[in-house]
Amino acid sequence: MQLTKQHIADANGNLKGHQADYYYLSQKLIDQGVDVDALVQKVADFQVAIPSWALGAGGTRFGRFSFHGEPGNLEQKIGDVGILHALTQTAGAVSLHIPWDTPTDYAAVKQIADQNGIVFDAINSNTFQDQPGTKHSYKHGSLANSDEAIRAQAVAHNNEVVRIGEKLGSKTLTIWLADGTSFPGQRSFQKALSQTEKSCKEIYGELPQDWSLLIEYKPYEPNFYSTVIMDWGTSFMLANACGDRAYTLVDLGHHLPNSNIEQVVATLMSKGKLGGFHFNDSKYGDDDLTVGSIKPYALFLIFNELVYGMANNPQNPDLAWMIDASHNIKDPLEDLLQSLEAIQEAYAKALLIDQKALEAAQLNHDVVKCQEILQGAYRTDVRPLLQKARLNGGGALNPIEAYRSLKVREGLIGERGKHTVATGL
Ligand code: RM4
Ligand code: MN
Ligand code: MN
């Protein structure tokens, strides 16, 4: 099922209401000195990768309720990303997870991606599960394992993932490790960390010259006592040990409650070491909920630092943006549409912050004014700007309404059947 511009224009119908909203908001912003066209263009240029594992229903430890019409293979998954991109014009990339989504027919996969305007962003390895046919088990760790043969197998897997990515045009490898311990005394912290550093350096050493390495961190789960790469500091240290093209990746759900993620972002960007970003939202742990569904103001504050860093830290690379959410009870595509909208909304609001006025208020120690500036931007309803950015690219006025009125899920069920199950967690 491919959505054409005509399908979407039909679903959009009359644009008069939008035009009136856009006119009103843009006049107000122009009066405030905002370059509205430039802002709309920035929003339109912001592309977020969809992970191949997020297109089916996610499970929990207690069960998994699959969703009808799930993509049954990689080609269908890319087709789903194409639907998201056609509607939103902001999901022009896919992030594959190997071996869940190892291509069997590269030419076919590339052709479907091309047809849908999708590129291959960061590619993810998986040494947190055992795969059929592998000699050694990762039950007691992979890159951190005390057994050299197991570490070698995990390093070889990462090298293989890079070779797969090279065939698709990807330029970035993301490593997330489950390695850690569930009980005190189970393993030496120091040895686990130094083995991990050695393994990461081996992987980095085999990377093509135009590739980068992203190192993700997470404080706990699946291990409940310790995780080897537990926080941004550990990831930063490993990235520095590897070299210039190794960076830290921040996943919003991978922090202990109440961590100041915006400050982590600012610190890493000032050092030129923030390479990737995984969006989701959470209440308690790595909940992988829809972006902006729980803490939208925190997301806005994080975007404030990202926007500042993108403008002021030329030493920091372009970031690999990805949604890393799981959809246990919603239609995965509708959930992703909600996440994409929330990301753009937070980004557009952060772009509205008057950085000069904020700096002046900071230098005057005018704490009240600083808060007024941030909250003034946050309270602006920027949705007409997002609509404008989408419409300029041929996208939907309201992606979820269009998805429903075009009966996309019904179409997918018709093509794939009710009981397909996507690979992933
Ligand atoms: C992890 C982490 C990784 C993702 C896996 C599926 O918690 O967020 O980024 O690859 O889940
Ligand atoms: Mn992640
Ligand atoms: Mn996670």
UniProtKB/TrEMBL annotation:
InterPro entries in UniProt: L-rhamnose_isomerase, Xyl_isomerase-like_sf
Record flagged with keyword Translocase: no
GO molecular function, one term: L-rhamnose isomerase activity
Record carries keyword GTP-binding: no
This protein's UniProt keywords: Isomerase, Manganese, Metal-binding
SUPFAM superfamilies: Xylose isomerase-like (SSF51658)
Documented EC number(s): 5.3.1.-, 5.3.1.14
Name of protein: L-rhamnose isomerase/sugar isomerase
Organism annotation: Neolewinella antarctica
